[in-house]
Write a structure and sequence with these properties.
Layout: H1 4-10, H2 24-62
Length: about 70
């Protein structure tokens, strides 16, 4: 029969998981996905603002919109 101290010594032989370094390809892919998502969101916002400006100037040319505040 083993003593209690011998049982504790056995715990030192367990293989511990080694943490690896950063995965370069994975980080590049994740960064690219975030960059394309942010770029796409900005581009959609930019197109919307262009459409609003174009619509405003078309209404201004037709006389449907004015830039002068009404007096009460």
């Amino acid at each position: 029969m083993r003593s209690r101290s011998e049982n504790y010594k056995m715990g030192g032989r367990i293989q511990h998981i080694q943490l690896g370094g950063p995965m370069l390809i994975k980080e590049i892919v994740i960064g690219s996905v975030f960059a394309f998502a942010a770029g796409g969101a900005f581009k959609m916002w930019h197109w919307d603002m262009q459409k609003r400006a174009k619509n405003f100037y078309e209404q201004l040319d037709r006389g449907e919109a004015t830039v002068v505040a009404q007096e009460y």
